[in-house]
Each structure stands twice: as C-alpha cells, then as structure tokens.
Specification:
alpha/beta, Rossmann fold
Length: 210
C-alpha cells in the first residue's frame, strides 16, 4: 500500500481483561499480543515511512498509569503497559539520537476516561460518570503536550489531580530506592506511611487506585 506523508501515528489498541502472575497463560498471550505486540508491529510498519519522508511527524503510544505504578489485581495488563512504556522510551531515545526532532515519540498516559473499556456496554446515550474525563479532554491534553514537546503526557481526570499522580509515581519509584517490599503502597505495614506521604492530595482520591 502506497502512502503519502504521514503526520501522526497513534497506537490505541488495548484490552484490559488480564490474568494473575501465575494464571491463564492463554490470556497472558492475548493481552500481550494486543497491548504490546500490536503496537510494536505498527511501529515497525510506520517508523521507516516516517523516517523516509521530508516532513516532520510523530508517533504516540497509549500507555497507562498502571504501567507505571503497577497496582495489584491485573498483572498481565500492568506488564503489557509497562513494556509499552519502556518500548516508547527506547524509541524516543533512538529517534532523537539518529535524526534529532524530525520524528518524535510520545507516551500518552490517560486518567480515568469515559470509554467502553472503563464503561462496558456504554452507548451514545449513556451519561458520563462525574469522575471520568471525556475522550475529547484526553485528546486536548495530547495536543497540549505535543505542542510543548513533552514525552510523558500525563492526564488528570475529575477525581485524581496531577499532584496525586506524581506522588503515587514517586512512591512506586522509591520502593526500589528505599528497598521497601514490592508494591508497598498496598502493603498493610505501609498504609499509614503512604497516607502521610500523599497528605492533602488524599482528599481527591476515590475509587481509582492507579
């Protein structure tokens, strides 16, 4: 298939139904095929085209906060999104080293968004729950982030502030630095320490536990 110049490639294929760390190998394969291998295949198809054309372009992979803080309960999904994050970081570095800013890579990290993935069975008439952002709001954040040349485009929603997201991410990174137990945010011995760490930001957190 012959294409003209391509300005933007967005990898947005994903499924959320996953499996636990030692369960359901077939479902693990399905999640990784859709969430990771499909995105890698699209990159392999389009990046040579983007490199060959004279006009600037960008490729965006849709990550997840679950690929950064990796909450318990859906290991396959978290692993797939963590893999996609690392892939996108590697791609951004390689593109920058080879050709500067002619082709850029970006990781879009949505918050709690009103989509069929988060609201199974939704229709055009389904009212949006108050905590969720619309897909349009996520798209607006993507445009703003790309205009600012951001690599990590971290979206908020109506129940989790950017400040709370940043503290959750920092806590997860500090598990390794401070040699705490894995996923200490959900460890009963660290419950009060985590609550103190997030401080006033805790008031904004409701059901979304990413």
């Amino acid at each position: 298939m012959k294409l003209g110049d391509v300005s933007l490639v967005v990898n947005n294929a994903a499924i959320i139904n996953g499996a636990g760390p030692w369960q359901d190998p077939e479902q693990w394969r399905r999640v990784m095929e859709v969430n990771f291998w499909a995105a890698l295949t699209v990159q392999q198809m389009f990046v040579p085209q983007l490199l060959s054309q004279a006009t600037p372009s960008a490729i965006v992979n849709l990550g997840s906060k679950e690929g950064i803080t990796t909450p318990p309960g859906n290991a396959a999904y978290s692993v797939s999104k963590a893999a996609l994050r690392v892939l996108t970081e590697q791609m951004a570095h390689e593109l920058r080293e080879q050709i500067g800013s002619k082709v850029t890579a970006h990781l879009l990290i949505p918050g709690y968004t009103f989509t069929p993935m988060n609201s199974p069975g939704m229709t055009a008439d389904t009212p949006k729950p108050d905590p969720m952002w619309t897909a349009d709001q996520v798209a607006e954040s993507l445009i703003a982030g790309m205009t600012a040349n951001d690599f990590y485009i971290l979206c908020e929603d109506n129940e989790v502030t950017r400040g709370l997201d940043e503290k959750r991410i920092q806590w997860s990174a500090d598990d390794l630095i401070l040699n705490r137990p894995a996923l200490s945010r959900w460890h009963p011995d660290y419950k009060e320490q985590f609550r103190a760490f997030i401080g006033t930001e805790a008031a904004t957190a409701t059901s979304n536990s990413n």
